[in-house]
Design goal:
glycosidase; DNA repair; 12 helices; DNA damage; oxidized pyrimidine nucleobase lesion DNA N-glycosylase activity; Endonuclease III; Endonuclease III, domain 1; Endonuclease Iii, domain 2
C-alpha cells in the first residue's frame, strides 16, 4: 500500500474502526457533570487512569461542588491529591480555578474554548477534553499518545500536540474527533509504545501505518 493512500478519509476511518474493534467500548463518549469532568481532567494530567479515578473520588467526596472547592484548605486538598502527579501545582490551581468560575460564571463551567484556556492550569488538551466529555462538542483532545501515533501513522508531520490538533482537524472526519483520544490512549499503552520499540507485529492497524510499513524502523 502506498503511503499516500493512508492519509485519506477512508484510510483514517479504517484505522479508527480497527482501533475501535480492538479496544471495544473505549471510543465511546460518556458525558459527565461539567464540574466533575473539569476537575478530574486536571487531576489526570500526567497521571495514570486508575490513579486519576481514585484521587478524583477522594476529592469529590470532600469537595462535591465548585463552592466547596473554592473554599478548600490547600494543605487538606494536597493530601487528597496524593497519587496525582504535580499535586503541589494542581492544588493551588484547582482552588484558583474554582474561585474564578464561582465569581465570574456563578459556578458554571463555560463551554467555550477561550474561556477554558483562560483558567489556571488549563491547556488545549484539558480544554478540549472538557468540551467533549462535559458538553458533547466536536473537538480533538491530543495528548502525548495521540501526538506520537498520528505522526507514526503518517497522518501528520508535527513537533507539538498543538500542531497535531490543527493538522488532525484537516485529515480526520469530524464524526471521529470526540472518541479518538481514548482509542489512541489505549493503543499507545498496549501496542504503539514510547519507552520501547512499538509492537508492530501485533498492531491491528499496521497495514495503514507509515511507520509499520517502513522496513528500517525500530520495532518489534
Amino acid at each position: 500500500m502506498a503511503i499516500e493512500t493512508m492519509v485519506t478519509p477512508g484510510g483514517v476511518r479504517a484505522v479508527m474502526e480497527g482501533l475501535a474493534a480492538t479496544y471495544r467500548g473505549r471510543g465511546s463518549v460518556e458525558l459527565g457533570e461539567p464540574y466533575r469532568v473539569l476537575v478530574s481532567t486536571v487531576i489526570s494530567q500526567r497521571t495514570r487512569e486508575e490513579q486519576t479515578t481514585a484521587v478524583s473520588q477522594r476529592v469529590f467526596a470532600r469537595y462535591p461542588d465548585m463552592a466547596s472547592l473554592a473554599a478548600a484548605d490547600e494543605k487538606e486538598l494536597l493530601v487528597l491529591l496524593a497519587g496525582s502527579e504535580y499535586r503541589e501545582a494542581k492544588g493551588p490551581r484547582l482552588i484558583a480555578m474554582a474561585t474564578i468560575l464561582l465569581e465570574k460564571y456563578g459556578g458554571r463551567v463555560p463551554d467555550d474554548i477561550d474561556a477554558l484556556l483562560a483558567l489556571p492550569g488549563i491547556g488545549r488538551k484539558t480544554a478540549n477534553c472538557v468540551l467533549i466529555y462535559a458538553f458533547n462538542r466536536e473537538a480533538i483532545c491530543v495528548d502525548t499518545h495521540m501526538h506520537k501515533i498520528a505522526n507514526r501513522l503518517g497522518w501528520v508531520t508535527t513537533k507539538t500536540p498543538e500542531q497535531t490538533e490543527k493538522a488532525l482537524e484537516v485529515v480526520m472526519p469530524r464524526d471521529l474527533w470526540a472518541g479518538s483520544n481514548r482509542l489512541f490512549l489505549q493503543h499507545g499503552r498496549a501496542i504503539c509504545l514510547s519507552g520501547a520499540p512499538p509492537l508492530c507485529s501485533r498492531c491491528p492497524v499496521r497495514p495503514w501505518c507509515a511507520y509499520g510499513q517502513e522496513p528500517t524502523a525500530r520495532k518489534r
